[in-house]
Write a structure and sequence with these properties.
CATH class: Alpha Beta
Shape: globular
CATH superfamily: Flavodoxin domain
Strand order of the largest sheet: 2-1-3-4-5
Order of helices and strands: EHEHEHEHEH
Number of domains: 1
C-alpha cells in the first residue's frame, strides 16, 4: 500500500531547483509513496501571541495535514549555510503549541541541494539538528546534490546518474518509513 508523504520545499520560487528536484523525487517514489508538495509560503510567521483558541487558519490546516501524513520529505536549498526562513517557519509552526508538535515520531528524510559543490551540507545538517530536537526520526542516509543547476535535462527531468541516485534515496526512504511508522 502506498504511503502518504508530505513534501516540504524550502524555496518559494516557482522554477527553483529545489522545487524541480522535489517533483522529480515525487515521480521516482511512485507507486511506493504517494507524495505531494504542501505549500508553506503563505504560513504566517510563528508568533506565540497568535497561538490562541483560534490560531491562524493556515497554521491549523498545515498542522492537520502534517499530522495526517505518514512521513515528511524535506527538500531544501542552502541559504547562508542554513535553511530558508520559510522552511524554518514551517518547522516552528508545526512544533507548536508546546506539547502538541505534529513532528514527533514522524519519519522524515532531508534532501538538500545547491549550485555549489557541497550540495547544501550546512542546510541539511541545520535542519537535521532542528528535527532531532523535535523527536523526528530522520533517515540517516544523507543526500546532498551539488551543482544542482547542471543536473537536469532540457525537459526538466534529472540526468541519468542523478536519477539513479535520487531513486536510491526514495527507495531507502520508503524502507525507512516502514521501519519507523508509528
Amino acid at each position: 500500500m502506498s504511503k502518504d508523504v508530505v513534501v516540504l520545499v524550502g524555496s518559494l520560487r516557482s522554477a527553483s531547483y529545489s522545487r524541480r528536484l522535489a517533483h522529480a523525487l515525487i515521480d521516482l517514489a511512485q507507486p511506493a509513496l504517494n507524495a505531494a508538495i504542501v505549500e508553506i509560503g503563505e504560513l504566517p510567521f510563528y508568533n506565540q501571541d497568535l497561538e490562541t483558541d483560534a490560531p491562524p487558519a493556515a497554521w491549523t490546516a498545515f498542522r492537520e495535514r502534517i499530522r495526517a501524513a505518514q512521513a515528511v520529505l524535506f527538500v531544501t536549498p542552502e541559504y547562508n549555510r542554513s535553511v530558508s526562513a520559510v522552511l524554518k517557519n514551517a518547522v516552528d509552526v508545526g512544533s507548536r503549541p508546546v506539547g502538541k508538535s505534529v513532528w514527533a515520531g514522524k519519519p522524515a528524510a532531508v534532501v538538500s541541494s545547491s549550485t555549489g559543490a557541497i550540495g547544501g551540507f550546512g542546510a541539511n545538517h541545520h535542519l537535521r539538528q532542528s528535527l532531532a530536537s523535535l523527536s523526528v526520526p530522520v533517515m540517516p542516509m544523507e543526500a546532498y546534490l551539488g551543482g544542482i543547476d547542471k543536473l537536469f535535462e532540457s525537459d526538466q527531468s534529472l540526468l541519468p546518474k542523478t536519477q539513479e541516485f535520487a531513486t536510491k534515496i526514495m527507495q531507502a526512504f520508503a524502507r525507512w518509513i516502514d521501519r519507523n511508522a508509528a
